[in-house]
Amino acid sequence: MQFFNLHSRRNSKIDSSSVKIGVFDSGVGGFTVVKELLSILPDVPIVYFGDTARTPYGPKSPEILRRYALEDAKFLIEKGANIIVIACHSAASCATQELRDKLSLPVFEVVTPSVEKACSLSKKGMIGIMGTRATVSSNIYPVLIPTKRPGAIVFQQPCPLLVPLVEEGWLKARETRMIVKKYLRPLKDKQIDTLVLGCTHYPLLKNVIQEKAGKRIKIVDPSREVAQKVASFLKESVITNNLNIEKTRTSCIREFFLSDLTPHTFEIVTRFLGRKVELKKA
Ligand code: DGL
Question: Hey, which residues does 220 pair with through a beta bridge?
Fold first, then answer.
């Protein structure tokens, strides 16, 4: 099994005078990352690709995820992206190294910032992960967390029912609460003190998850963490690469592409972003 280097993206540089962040996900989950990016970097152009025609990625094999992730990233590069953000844990866990090896631009992803945040937040080093089957089977978290925090113990829980519940908008339903409670039970039994929301859909269930986990457990929201990483990278690049944020402002655009588009998709995206945006079929 091959895992990626926590810091390898720093080897890549953007040498263009403007920046466009390309964000991709298996579908709509990555909009939680877009929302954070828009609030931290309101002036930077973003192009999004959601692979709604081939979603979900969660139950798929690493080989397929590597192929899909590369295709998704290439689509964004064709649309002018010069930074890639993998806003999908399933793809990030299996395909980050592949993308870093094959693409000569900075590749950010949701796993590393979550690992770093969980390690710094956790008092006892007892860390729980909720994720899709692909993320949990990749074992990315149990491998990376102890490299950052020796002695930490990681407990994982696949939560395949949560993505459809979020997409149906059952964010506070009794059934959703019951399922969240059931998924959290084994993690709580292990006395975790920190919990990573290891799927870009889960931030929409953050309140219910916090309620069922209890106040004692600290929650890591990867969408916020990855957006902050991108922001610090850009700040650094303004100095080291002469990146011209002023210039990007004049051409600031946001484009949201999806590989399949239905009226229901509009509803879900509006729920994720908290406002309506124009969606284009890729
Ligand atoms: N957003 C995806 C992730 O973070 C979950 C949805 C899917 O299974 O495609 O893994």
Answer: 196
List the domain range (segments joined by +) for residue 75.
8-109+224-281
Which of 133, 98, 93, 134 is closest to 114 using CA atoms?
93
Is residue 93 a contact partner of residue 120, using CB atoms and an 8 Å limit? no
88 is catalytic: yes
Q: Which of 31, 34, 48, 57 to mutate to test the pocket of ligand 1 (most atoms within 8 A of CB)?
A: 57
Which residue has its alpha carbon closest to ligand 1 atom 7?
56
**Mean pLDDT score, 100-119:** 96
The DSSP-derived string for 16-45 is SSS--EEEEESSSTTHHHHHHHHHH-TTS-
Contact at 8 Å (CB) between 205 and 171? yes
Residue 56 neighbours by CB distance under 10 Å: 21
Do 212 and 116 lie in one domain? The reply is: yes
**Residue among 33, 89, 90 to mutate when testing ligand 1 (max atoms within 8 A of CB):** 90
Let me know if residue 1 belongs to a domain: no
> Of 55, 54, 64, whose CA–CA distance to 138 is shortest?
64
Within 6 Å (CB) of ligand 1, which residues are found? Answer: 25-27, 29, 55-58, 88-90, 132, 135, 163, 199-201
pTM of the model: 0.91
pLDDT digits (tens, 9 = 90+) for 88-109: 999 999 999 999 999 999 999 9
Closest approach atom of ligand 1 to CA 27:
9
